[in-house]
């Protein structure tokens, strides 16, 4: 298949592109390479896919991979209402996997406009391009943050998600509503994926795994919010991508026949880990004790997440299962190598 992967220089988009290429698919990667975090990390990911930084610097320039003839990259803004439709018209995609978004809960308190531009205007542009280009299936990233103030554990896709507590979460909930609307009106199969606290090698510098490791290595205190009384369903990157690729590859013919064009799944480890236990595992792998600065819970944060993945198991025979012990070791090994 020919697959458009947006956010291809990002954490999940990079690995998704890599696995799809390994499985023989043709991939066009799209990313605007914004400066929300270190762009050098984004260009390094692209280098792993055979894309030269000088070529990728220019907007709307189609770059061919030097290592895989099935991969091309284009630097583009999702909200560009001329360039994106032209890309769809020229490339004739079978599947679209939209992983591009302005990420981060806390950043949405400081720069709300960027979330509207990328996550709402950009997603609408994706939907319109799918509508007018006979796209067989749109797979897109949602987030566990949509569960907001929900108290029932574990979080199920059958739960009501009308109480988000950050603008980021509200935009992801909006994406699901927009996907439902386009599925209903224009018969486009759409699948939303609620990711739960993704971590692993090549991970984002604004995420806990990276922040804690970087601080401990460099003898800085780590910020432990809610005085450590937090639990997360930490999900290893390989487990996330395995779920994404299974959903991309499985034909949606049966869903279309059953008029189930719209679907949402949780992808999580189906396990809630205490934040202090997570930190302890990092300390073990670094052979170093963290200096902990205990702080109140931050606006937009939730105390606990835990994914119910029964629907994923039922429809795709898949359950993420990488342990924290395995996952943390892999990240720390990568961090030491990359920043050596």
What are the defining features of this structure?
eight-stranded mixed beta sheet, Rossmann fold, alpha/beta, two-stranded parallel ribbon, 340 residues
Give a description of the structure:
With 340 residues, this protein is of the alpha/beta class. The chain has one domain: NAD(P)-binding Rossmann-like Domain (Rossmann fold). 41% of the residues lie in helices and 17% in strands. It has 13 helices and 14 strands. It has helices spanning 11-22, 39-48, 53-56, 83-91, 107-110, 112-131, 167-186, 208-217, 237-249, 253-257, 275-286, 310-316, 324-338; strands at 2-6, 26-31, 62-64, 71-75, 95-98, 137-143, 190-195, 198-199, 222-225, 231-232, 235-236, 262-267, 273-274, 292-295. It has an eight-stranded mixed β-sheet with strand order 3-4-2-1-5-6-7-12, with helices on both faces. α1 (11-22) links the parallel β1 and β2. The longest helix is centred in the middle third of the chain and has 20 residues, at 112-131. It is globular and about 55 Å long. 46% of the residues are buried. The model has no long low-confidence stretch (mean pLDDT 96). Keywords: NAD. InterPro entries: Epimerase_deHydtase, NAD(P)-bd_dom_sf.
């Amino acid at each position: 298949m020919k697959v458009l992967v947006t956010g291809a220089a990002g954490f999940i988009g990079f690995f998704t592109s890599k696995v799809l290429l390994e499985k023989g698919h043709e991939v066009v990667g799209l990313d605007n390479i914004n400066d929300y975090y270190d762009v050098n990390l984004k260009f390094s990911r692209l280098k792993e896919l055979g894309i030269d930084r000088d070529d990728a610097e220019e907007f709307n320039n189609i770059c061919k991979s030097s290592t895989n003839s099935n991969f091309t990259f284009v630097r583009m803004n999702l909200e560009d209402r001329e360039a994106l439709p032209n890309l769809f018209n020229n490339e004739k995609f079978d599947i679209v996997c939209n992983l591009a978004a302005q990420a981060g809960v806390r950043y949405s308190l400081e720069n709300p406009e960027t979330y509207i531009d990328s996550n709402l205007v950009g997603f609408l542009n994706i939907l319109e391009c799918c509508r007018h280009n006979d796209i067989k299936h749109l797979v897109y990233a949602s987030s566990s943050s949509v569960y907001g103030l929900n108290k029932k554990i574990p979080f199920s896709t059958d739960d009501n998600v009308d109480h988000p507590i950050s603008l980021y979460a509200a935009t992801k909930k909006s994406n699901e509503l927009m996907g439902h609307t386009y599925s209903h009106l224009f018969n486009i199969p759409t699948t939303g994926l609620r990711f739960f606290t993704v971590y692993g090698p090549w991970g984002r510098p604004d995420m806990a795994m990276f922040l804690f490791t970087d601080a401990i290595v460099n003898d800085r205190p780590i910020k432990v919010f809610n005085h450590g009384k937090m639990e997360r369903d930490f999900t290893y990157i390989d487990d996330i991508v395995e779920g994404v690729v299974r959903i991309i590859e499985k034909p949606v013919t049966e869903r279309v026949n059953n008029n189930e064009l719209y679907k949402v799944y949780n992808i999580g480890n189906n396990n809630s880990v205490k934040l202090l236990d997570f930190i302890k595992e990092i300390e073990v792998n670094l052979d170093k004790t963290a200096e902990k600065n205990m702080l109140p819970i931050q606006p937009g944060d939730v105390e606990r997440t835990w994914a119910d993945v029964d629907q994923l198991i039922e429809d795709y025979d898949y359950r993420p299962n990488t342990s924290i012990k395995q996952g943390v070791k892999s990240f720390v090994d990568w961090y030491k190598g990359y920043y050596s």
